[in-house]
Amino acid sequence: MVRPVVTIRDVAREAGVSVATVSRALNGHANVAEPVRKQVEAVAQRLRYSPHGAARSLSSRSTQTIGVVLPDLHGEFFSELIRGIGAGARARRKHMLLSSYHGDPEQQAAALRAMRGRVDGLLVMSPFADQPGFLEENLPPLPAVLVNTHQAEPAWPAFEVDNHAGAMAMTAHLLALGHRRIAFIAGPEHNYDAQERLRGFREAIAAHPGASGCEYPGDFDEASGHRAGQAILAAGERPQAVFAANDMMALGCLYAFAQAGVRVPQDIALAGFDDIPLARFVHPSLTTMRVSIAQLGGRAVERLLDQIEAGADVAGPASGEVADRHVLAPELVVRASSGGPEHPASGTGPG
Q1: How far apart are CA 301 and CA 96, in angstroms?
Q2: What is the pTM of this model?
Q3: Which one, of 106, 108, 114, 96, lies nearest residue 70 by Cα?
Q4: pLDDT tens digit string along 292-348?
Q5: Do residues 148 and 316 make contact, with C-beta atoms less than 8 angstroms apart?
Q6: How do beta strands 288-290 and 331-333 pair?
Q7: Alpha-carbon gap, residue 222 to 77, rounded angstroms
Q8: Which of 164, 134, 139 is nearest to 152 (CA)?
């Protein structure tokens, strides 16, 4: 069940003080004794209370703003996602309130709760959604749409990339080029996208007789790709190809190879995932799986705004309805780095 809304009166009653004292304590006023302030703050935290952010919205019942809570803001993936969300919001004359939590569950929980009263609905990307009760306890009672977020039971509308199928397609491409020893640079251990890409790689390798795969840790950034590239070169037997779970790590790996005088694709083939804008401008240009990241954000915000403007009831487990799920299929884009012909799988020319 979705948790009931906790009000300032609940905090006051639990702390044994007046509503005015709670307000002064939580707003940092000096005329509150320190023991009382600490007591009020402790009760507010225990009850998961967040003050309403926009008083004016309480009367109009609309902030004309959507909230976006993401695990990070660094990197081209998030830049493209935010670009798509922002464009969709502007097209509907809405504002966007953005927050990130850098992979910490408590920070994300606080970011979600803090959105209450500030926004009309939420777009959320969370690696913690499969933890029992996490979203139910922390999502405000607002319309919400999930992006690239795994749900054990589909309770909220969701938009996601078919990462598993994309990773299988890329691995199959490398195998079709004759590469049998393939290294995989994985993403963050608790990231759902990374888990699905690793699963797709493993299944494609297991299904191909004579193929072998080795795995290296990564964190979806250039530095971890660079470290993985150095580790790959230091290994006893070099792989014939490297598949990085995202383009940023592939670019870091490419730099490590260039520093060591290892040629791509002549000595080692290389591929990534996402097709960030930079992928086509490096040398050699990067073979990758194209994900329409901006489109992903745009479609998700359209779904959310439709829900808000229709005055629909809050989605979630308490609604009793089966939430819709939209899966975007990535596209194989073959460029120079894998050693194959430089054409996308769709045959539309270089990406």
Answers
A1: 10
A2: 0.74
A3: 108
A4: 889 999 999 999 999 998 875 555 554 555 578 899 999 999 999 998 666 444 333
A5: no
A6: antiparallel
A7: 13
A8: 134
